[in-house]
Task: inverse folding
């Protein structure tokens, strides 16, 4: 990350929290892989500097995750493909920034970075609206199976996707 250490550590925390939440929902493996990758990429360079080899390791992993999401039957597979493509792009751009060619100017292609920023901002707004409670207000689950119902609640999946999209926005801004 080329941003401040505070923002980087907040992104690491967000990525790890989303990874943990996604791992609880066994069907959310793609989200778990993406959020774990976000956490690794967000570690401040003063703590862990993968150098140019980081892209050689991370980019193929994210590319395979994107291809896997395209062949699944998940309703949000295109979003996962865009997330994976954005992660590949950021890994390559960060590695290019490490070589010194773009370190003083920032890394990445401004038009592509801008398009990804617009996409993730749109996604956060669109998906976040689904989390707004209706006129009756939110209903809290009760009883002994409340934890099980929360674990499989569709709102948890939406909240994970919104959190990851916000993390993508922050990482793209810091690119």
Result:
């Amino acid at each position: 990350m080329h941003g401040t250490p505070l923002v980087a550590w907040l992104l690491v925390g967000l990525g790890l929290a989303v990874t943990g939440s996604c791992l609880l929902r066994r069907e959310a493996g793609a989200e778990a892989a993406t959020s774990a990758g976000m956490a690794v990429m967000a570690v401040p360079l003063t703590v862990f500097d993968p150098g140019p080899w980081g892209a050689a390791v991370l980019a193929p992993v994210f590319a395979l995750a994107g291809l896997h999401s395209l062949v699944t039957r998940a309703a949000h597979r295109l979003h996962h493909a865009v997330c994976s493509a954005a992660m590949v792009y950021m890994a390559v751009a960060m590695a290019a920034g490490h070589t010194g060619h773009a370190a003083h100017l920032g890394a990445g292609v401004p038009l592509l970075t801008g398009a990804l920023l617009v996409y993730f901002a749109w996604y956060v707004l669109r998906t976040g609206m689904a989390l707004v409670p209706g006129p009756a207000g939110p209903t809290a689950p009760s009883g002994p199976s409340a934890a099980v119902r929360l674990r499989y609640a569709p709102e948890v999946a939406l909240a994970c996707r919104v959190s990851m999209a916000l993390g993508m926005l922050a990482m793209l801004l810091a690119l």
